[in-house]
Design goal:
Number of domains: 2
Strand content: 15-25%
Largest sheet: 6 strands, mixed
CATH architecture of the largest domain: 3-Layer(aba) Sandwich
Strand order of the largest sheet: 10-15-14-13-11-12
Shape: elongated
Radius of gyration: 27 Å
Oligomer: single chain
Number of helices: 14
Number of strands: 17
Distance between the termini: 66 Å
């Protein structure tokens, strides 16, 4: 059994104060000495939880409108000292610095700020400096320090407080999660800032972060492992759908649904698209969505069996009735007329997806061995798309 390292001294500085009072109460009950900053310290003190403000410990005031709070040797030496190294401990003692066993920090909401359309200067102020510095330092020194980087980890911390602290493996896992968060944070800043500095055309550098949503039963073939991931940016397409009925989606369901959804939105008129094994069986526009579906199905009624259907309009009862007459793996649409889902769900195997508003991404990415292809996303009415411009 791994040895647990007791938690005696903690640094707490959070923007997201979800669960903060519960956290402070648990730390205080466990006899942990708490240092804290600014509004975090105030909230804890107002709740009657003993806290030492950081500026009292460092004997250095917060300055530059809050840009400098924790960037001080007494803080970072306490985070970075290897507590198994006698020389490190001697140096701390010589400078009257105490080591930390726990850091609880979450960052300024930079991504939410840029997504809100805030002005450039406001976005700049939401780039956290002290937070990532402390998180990265504590994560590097996870042999000595446990680092909590998100409120979702508080329950894990509470369990550790009740069992004598974290094991080295648990601290290592927390460090990994921390570096993932700070890495994602830096990528978001770089991607945002590049729009003000890069020349026209495709970016000189790109970073993407993907979060696992769920494991899939298998990949393209039964012997392949697979999972579905969503972008850390705004959720669009299949990452923003709600499944209303049916079995879990498969790898092939996702690829076909994506192709069908894109094809259906190539047109402004009511349009339906049928895809099977990544091949189009039919795409058609019509006076209404039921008419469009019937035309798409007529393109290749045999291959449409077991296909994936997408519509760029609300699926009507009329379309649902026609669709229910043939075996269909998946249907995806922005909405469903009252009664349409009930008609479709009489087929127990069909997967019924409700998608959010269609958003055409600016860029498309395709991995190749050792590299990545990036191109601007095509559209059926794209500027310059004419026979005269076609090239071999």
């Amino acid at each position: 059994m791994s040895t647990r390292k007791p938690i005696r001294r903690a640094l707490v500085s959070v923007y997201d104060k979800t669960g903060l009072i519960e956290l402070g109460t648990a730390l205080n009950k466990a006899g942990v000495v708490i240092l804290s900053t600014g509004s975090t310290a105030k909230k804890l003190l107002d709740a009657g939880i003993p806290v030492t403000p950081v500026e009292e410990y460092t004997n250095f005031p917060e300055m530059l409108d809050g840009r400098v709070k924790t960037l001080h040797p007494r803080i970072h030496a306490g985070l970075l000292a290897d507590q198994s190294n006698s020389d490190h401990l001697a140096q701390l003692e010589a400078q009257n610095i105490e080591a930390f066993d726990l850091v609880v920090i979450n960052l300024y909401p930079f991504t939410q700020t840029i997504e809100s359309g805030a002005a450039f200067e406001e976005c700049i102020e939401q780039i956290d400096i002290g937070g990532p510095s402390m998180l990265r330092g504590a994560a590097k020194n996870h042999n000595s320090v446990a680092v909590i980087s998100d409120p979702s980890q508080y329950q894990t911390l509470f369990l550790a407080l009740g069992s004598g602290g974290f094991t080295i493996n648990e601290r290592r896992k927390l460090a990994l999660e921390t570096y993932r968060r700070t890495g994602e944070y830096d990528i978001a800043i770089s991607e945002w800032l590049s729009q003000f500095t890069d020349s026209e055309g495709l970016p000189e550098w790109t970073g993407r972060v993907w979060h696992k949503v769920n494991d899939l039963r298998y990949g393209e073939n039964p012997h392949q492992n697979a999972a579905f991931y969503r972008s850390s940016n705004r959720a669009i397409g299949l990452a923003a759908t709600e499944q209303l009925h049916g079995k879990e989606m498969s790898f092939n369901n996702f690829t076909d649904a994506d192709a069908a959804w894109r094809a259906a939105w190539d047109h402004n008129e009511p349009c339906a698209a049928i895809i099977k094994h990544a091949n189009p069986c039919g795409v058609a526009i019509g006076e209404n969505i039921a008419d469009a579906y019937l035309k798409a199905h007529a393109c290749d009624s045999i291959s449409a069996f077991g296909g994936v259907v997408a519509a760029n309009r609300e699926i009507s009862v009329e379309m649902a009735t026609a669709l229910s007459e043939i075996f269909t793996e998946v249907v995806i649409a922005p909405s469903y007329e009252s009664g349409a889902v009930e008609i479709l769900s009489k087929k127990p195997s069909i997967r019924i997806l409700k998608a959010s508003e269609y958003v055409r991404p600016e860029l498309e990415l395709r991995p190749v061995l050792g590299g990545l292809l990036i191109q601007s996303t095509d559209a059926i009415d794209a500027s310059g798309d004419s026979f005269s411009n076609w090239k071999q």
